[in-house]
From TrEMBL:
The lineage of its organism: Bacteria, Pseudomonadati, Pseudomonadota, Alphaproteobacteria, Hyphomicrobiales. PANTHER family: 12S RRNA N4-METHYLCYTIDINE METHYLTRANSFERASE (PTHR11265:SF0), S-ADENOSYL-METHYLTRANSFERASE MRAW (PTHR11265). It is an enzyme of class 2 (transferase). It comes from the Bacteria. S-adenosyl-L-methionine binds at residues 36-38, 53, 80, 98, 105. Pfam families: Methyltransf_5. Keywords: Cytoplasm, Methyltransferase, rRNA processing, S-adenosyl-L-methionine, Transferase. The keyword Metal-binding does not apply. Residues 252-297 are annotated as: Disordered. This is Ribosomal RNA small subunit methyltransferase H. Transmembrane segments: none annotated. It comes from Pelagibacterium luteolum. It is found in: Cytoplasm.
Length: 325
């Protein structure tokens, strides 16, 4: 086999494969290819796999799978939010999405995703557009605080924003460890607790890559391309993402409660039939892969109801707008 060495272990792999089954002969879109862990396992079970990723550094893993499964693997360089465009007119039986940054990307110090490794404050998945350094050094104190609170659920967001603005007044903040040091100095660190920069780095990464918008667009794109009986499996790594996916699958969570004073409305037809309740990693997996502790798998089977148009209403998508008070 030509698979390159990868530090990334696909989370909830067995559970994802089960949610996508049956796989033999199926056409499956791996919308977040990464190191190709899901794609390889799916191809090994006899499926035809279309991998999608916007990160140019995944190419060695693409080449390895193409060599091992030349008749059953293809790849499209694209944001996963445009997976409907990426596959064109091809028939698809299932879609899998693994949302968030991978350990492979965290281990690449030059990408700037990790507060544990020295590197440029970048965080761009596609290597273009606005970087984390641009946000850290360019946003007002109010906007920084709003961003860190909205996308990181960080209670100390105002204090952190104030410390960042004070720090950049002395010199531009362009290094991951420097930003982490500023945050730790501002809020302190509890013994045994998570690093105080965790939520701020999460918020910056989400903002830089437009991750919530990407996720919602990908969910509706999957709904559009999957026929009745098609399967969608989504793995998320924090509560904000999971809330969006939960509400997407369960339309009773997004529909407004009807007034008892108004005429009774027809019941909304479901676009998805849930396979099961959310799935978490077991103790064996979390023991060998700490990243799996925060992972949640939700999946569904497509009904015959016509696909919805893209929308964010009712999905609980966090908002951040520059210049807001």
């Amino acid at each position: 086999m030509g698979e390159p060495q990868s530090p990334h272990e696909s989370v909830l792999l067995a559970e994802v494969l089960d949610a996508l089954a049956p796989l033999d002969g199926a056409v499956v879109v791996d919308g977040t290819f990464g190191a190709g862990g899901y794609s390889r396992a799916i191809a090994e079970r006899g499926a035809i796999v279309i991998g999608i990723d916007r990160d140019p550094t995944v190419q060695p893993f693409v080449d390895a799978l193409a060599a091992d499964f030349p008749e059953r693997f293809s790849f499209v360089a694209s944001p996963f939010s445009e997976l409907d465009i990426a596959i064109g007119e091809r028939h698809v039986d299932a879609v899998v999405l693994d949302i968030g940054v991978s350990s492979m990307q965290l281990d690449q110090a030059e990408r700037g995703f990790s507060f544990m490794r020295a590197g440029p404050l970048d965080m761009r998945m596609s290597r273009d557009g606005e970087s984390a350094a641009d946000l850290v050094n360019g946003l007002s104190e109010t906007d920084l605080g709003n961003l860190i609170f909205a996308f990181g659920e960080e209670r100390a967001s105002r204090r952190i924003a104030k410390a960042i603005v004070a720090g950049r007044a002395e010199a531009q903040i362009t290094d991951t460890l420097e930003l982490a040091r500023i945050i730790e100095k501002a809020v302190g660190r509890k013994p045994g607790g998570p690093h105080p920069a965790t939520r701020t780095f999460q918020a910056l990464r989400i903002a830089v890559n437009g991750e919530f918008d990407e996720l919602v667009r990908a969910l509706f794109a999957a709904e559009k391309i999957l026929p009745e009986g098609g399967r969608l499996a989504v793995v998320t790594f924090h509560s904000l993402e999971d809330r969006i996916v939960k509400r997407f699958f369960d339309e009773s969570k997004t529909s407004p409660t009807p007034s008892r004073h108004l005429p009774q409305q027809a019941k909304v037809e479901a676009h998805w039939s849930p396979v099961r309740k959310s799935v978490k990693a077991g103790s064996a997996e979390t023991g060998r892969n700490p990243r799996a502790r925060s992972a949640t798998l939700r999946s569904g089977i497509r009904t015959g109801v016509v696909a919805r148009e893209f929308q964010t209403a009712g999905l609980g998508v966090p908002g951040f707008r520059r210049g807001a008070a």
